[in-house]
Design brief:
The complex is a heterodimer of chains A (about 270) and B (about 300). Chain A has about 270 residues and is mainly alpha-helical. Chain A contains twelve helices and no strands. The longest helix of chain A has about 30 residues. The termini of chain A are far apart. The C terminus of chain B is likely disordered. The chains are: A mainly alpha (about 270), B alpha/beta (about 300). The interface between A and B is large, with 43 and 49 residues.
Chain lengths: ~270, ~300
Amino acid sequence: MEAVDRISSHEVTTRRATPIKVLIRSTYLDNQLAFSLVTVTWVLGLWVFQFHHGKLDNLLIFGCLYSLLIAPSIAGSHIQDGAEEFSFALPFSKSQIFWTRFLVGFLPLLFFIGLGEFAIKNDLPQKLWGLFFDAGFLAPTYSIGLIENHLPLLHALPFSIFFFSYSCVTLTPNSNSTLYPFLVSLAGLGIIFLLGIVLPQYFKEISERESLRLFRVNSTMLIITSVILLAAASQLYMQKQIGDKSKLRQLCFIYFVIIGLYLLFAA
Amino acid sequence: MEFNILTENLTKRYSNGTVAVKGLNLQVCPGSVMGLVGKNGSGKSTVLRLLLGLLKPTGGSATILGQSLWNAKAEQRQEVTYVSQEAKVYAKWSYRALCQYCACLYPNWDPRWARDLISRFDLDPDKPVQSMSGGQRRKVAIALAMAPRPKVILLDEPAAGLDPSARRKLIDALIDALSDREGTTVLFSTHIVSDLERIADEITLLENGSCAFSKSLDDLQGKARKVQIIFDGQDVPGSFEIEGAIKVEKSGPVYSALDFDWSEEKEAQLKASQSNLRIQTFTPNLEDILIELFDIENDEFSSTRKGA
């Protein structure tokens, strides 16, 4: 009974919170384990073990892993619990649910990549640890690697994975099928990446300058495509009904159109 | 007259062509309790989902407190709560955490009532929902739907899977909720007749997505008569019409029927038309009435209803 009595006092203290704050908090709590995991990976990888050695490649890998883990988790946790009907019945609008969850997942990614990039470019981990140790253990800073020359990809790829996965998984009709839309989103992204960046270099010998240009243009295209897909998903989400498969199909159709346009462009 | 729940010619056709709800007209007054009954697949859950805006109508309209909840703003949902058939809530959360969450969302959240409900239902407020049994989860969902003191509560088979004691507590809690705040309107679907008898003011029977029948409980129980017409001797007619009666069945020399409009005049008319018959009437209980109604074909029912 004592435990029960505490309920009322908790509620009084939290009553002032707005629904958006409640939604942010609940989304975070539902995905707490995944968030903890990526935060620990980021802190250890960038600030403690110095896997980077001045390169940004590992930050790209981290960003992609983050998106692969967090985006489907945030978009699909309630669906997988079978609690989407409960969410929709609560006093939230669908746009609040869609965008709040998206931002709860996406803003930390921006933060991790932005701060990571800043730290690596300014050699902050080395400088920080240099205050305490000077035993020659730390590797010297050097700036080579894929990303150093193809910086736009650092943003384009993790962001695209996040946008694509979130868009598809959030339109999942029921709890049995969150994996399927996630895989579809990755397949679509893979095809676009292949058509835009990999194949042009494979079939035609291009100079390093042309390659840089290709990366820049296609990274921008990838970001634009992802934003379009996210905008389409948000519109479809407003029309989402319980158990409705048609919205995911419509998003897949938009996928095919985008891939078709890429094919046209590549040809 | 104002209705808290109103559907007008409500129709829902799924993308595979199935028509789940067909031209349904429902009217529920403030403060009344309507029980939705019908066979599995008759459209009860779909109606509740359409009302709550979880599904979009393909025709007609569904409004609660004068507003359609399809793509409604957050504020419009604050006076309406719902428990789905599966009664699923956030699985990793405890009742306490869910209460904290919902308390921020509903302006009329009643912490004392939330506490009272959980002790009535004998639940551990700190246990995660995912480690509870199906019946306990349902109790959590029901408590969360009642604690906000909403104006309208929609319950989809709330007592399914509950043991008799828990079911009684649920119904008692519903009665308390109704008596504590004037004007709380409840629409619930059920297969359990005793629940209907205890709390429903009105009963609507759904048949293939349309309203086959809607009557107040008093009308249903007070006016319904089970009529048996027994023919003496060998002269039993092959068919026999009882005007306005539902489902006339023959068993040997006995015709039986359910009649919502039975009167002494009618009895006298029947006796005058045939010399070799005796008539017996019984007052059926609600379960008998509903079982009779469930078996009625839609066309047959609508034609007899017109007659009545």
